[in-house]
Structures are given as structure tokens and as C-alpha cells.
Write a structure and sequence with these properties.
Elements (H helix, E strand, L loop, with lengths): L1 E5 L4 H12 L3 E6 L6 H4 L8 E5 L5 H9 L3 E4 L6 H6 L1 H21 L4 E6 L26 H22 L3 E6 L2 E2 L10 H10 L4 E4 L5 E3 L1 E2 H12 L8 E4 L4 E3 H11 L6 E4 L1 H4 L15 H7 L7 H15 L9
Parallel strand pairs: 1-2, 1-4, 2-3, 4-5, 5-6, 6-11, 7-10, 8-13
Antiparallel strand pairs: 9-12
Helix pairs in contact: 1-8, 3-5, 5-6, 7-9, 7-12
Bound molecules: uridine-5'-diphosphate (UDP).
Amino acid sequence: MKVLITGGAGFIGSHLTEHLLARGDRVAVLDDLSTGAMANIEAFKSNTKFSYAIETIFNVPLLAEMVDNADAIFHLAAAVGVRLIIESPTRTIETNIGGTELVLKAAAKKLKPIFVASTSEVYGKSTKVPFKEDDDLVFGATTKSRWSYAASKAVDEFLALAYAKEKKLPVVIGRLFNTVGPRQTGRYGMVIPRFIEQGLAGGPISVYGDGEQTRCFGWVGDVVKGMADLLGCEKAEGGVFNLGATEEITINALAAKVAAKTGGKAKIEHVPYEKAYEEGFEDMKRRVPSIEKAAKFIGYKPTVGIDEILERVIETYRSQTTRPPKPRR
Ligand code: UDP
């Protein structure tokens, strides 16, 4: 099969590329490197089944050509990361809504099956545990830019489902919960690479808020396999699926684990949200997926727990450099 991955040079996109190449697919990546990196796809360049274009999805003729050449599409190109969203809300909204519209339009012309990557952020500040795919979405005020990301991805979902309904486009939507693994950068806010870099640098490890908020961290290898399996599952067409892990951990406990696994010297500090992000920032207290639906349709099952995840990621940092990285604020 010939597959197009928009955003294929990003953290998740590059793992998906690896997974699809390993199962024998041909993979073409379209990425403007806005949050992705050449280094993420370096290893695939010698593979004759791999090709790439460093361009934006807003280049419509190129997008059309790449869509035409593919049998299926994974649309991952998006502005992601809480820090990036707070700092660049215009870019977030325009990339996520305008970009997805173009990709769906191109896919619809030839009815190419498409996986649209969405996010657990769409559940917003709902306090229900666990989140199920048909639950209500609960957003905060429009003056709080975090919610622009949730709302932009919710619009992407509406649009993808509208194409499925009206144009019979074979669409499947995956709501990715906190997904982690090697090659993830902390630059856009993601907690695990930030904590590990801080831990390896001797600390401090900065926990935002009181640290009692929880997350469930899914191993990227499990998540990308889930994405590939969903697009290959006819019954999943037109559906929305949570993908992630269900092992819940507080950010305080996560910080303590990272401190212990990175040498045990790093102190843990608490930083108020308004200092870390912006005045009035709202975080979600708990975020746990129900993965029953994905389990039922594709036999989805997370295979790597948080301790193993942290050890694997720390190992990739240690093998990259002998000098500790500079601490982040
Ligand atoms: N967080 C933190 N320190 C950091 C980055 C994030 O304590 O340096 C917290 C953040 O406030 C959130 C959790 O870790 O409660 C997960 O953050 P991330 O940005 O990775 O993902 P989110 O679940 O917020 O999308």
C-alpha cells in the first residue's frame, strides 16, 4: 500500500512512518518542519520505499499530487502542544482548521481513505472519568487560548464526519491521549521530555500547579499501531476512537519517578500555572480514556507501562549525549 502522512516528520508521524515501512508499505511524508524535524526521518532516507517533501499542506497543487499518488492518508499535520498553543493561537487555529479542510477536500476528490488525528483535548475540562467517545465536550471561555486548540480539533472532527456523511469519504478519527516516547521534544510543552531533560541536568524538575492533576501516558508504538489498524478496519469507517493508555498517574508522582530514574539528585519545584503559561490558565484535573471501543474494533491494547516508558526514553537521551542537556525553565 502507498501511504501519505501529513506531519510525518513530527514525533508521532515519524513513529507511524517506521511502523508502516516495517509492515511493507510505501510511505510519502509531507511536512513543513514547523514542529517536526529532519532528524526524525533521517533514518528512513535510505529506504527506497520512503519519500518526503518539505512543504506545507497549504501548497494545494503539491498536496493534490501527493494525495493522488497515495492509497490512504494519515493526516497528522497540526499545531500541537500546550505551550505552542498559548504562544501562537492564530497559527494553531489557522493550521488546524484551514489545513484539515484542504486535506479532506483533496482526499474527497478521489475518495481516499483517511485517518484524521484528533486529541483528548477535545474533551476539554469535562470531569467525567473515563472519557468515552460520545461524551459531551466541555470547553472554557474563548478568552482562554488553550480552548482554541480543543475547539479547532473539534471542528476538524465535525468536518471529517461531514465529509464521511455527505461525500461518502472513508474517514476514521483517532483521539490521541498523552502519547510519549523517543524523539518527543519538550519545546512545545510536553511534560515527559521536559522532566527527563531537567532530571538529567540535575534539576529542578518543574511541576505546574499543585501536581495532583493526573494523566495517562501511552507508548507511541502502541498508539501508532492503533492508528494503522483503525485505518485498515472497514467497520471503523465514520467512527471516532480514543487511543491511549489507562494507567493514571499524578504529575507529582511522575516527577518523583523521573527524579529517581535520572540519578536521584534533582529537586522537584512547583510552579503556579499563571507563571508557567498565562494568567487564568485552566488545566484538566484528570484525563483518562475509555479504550473499550478501540479494543472491540481492532483489539487495541497498551503494552508498555509508565516505568518502562520512562526507562526507554531516558535511555535514548543517555545514548545520544554524554553531556547533560541544558535545563529548561
Ligand atoms: N506539566 C508540568 N511541567 C511541565 C510541563 C507540563 O507540570 O514542564 C504538566 C501540565 O500542566 C499538565 C501535565 O503536566 O498538567 C501534562 O502536560 P502536557 O503539556 O504534556 O500535556 P497535556 O495533558 O496538558 O496536553
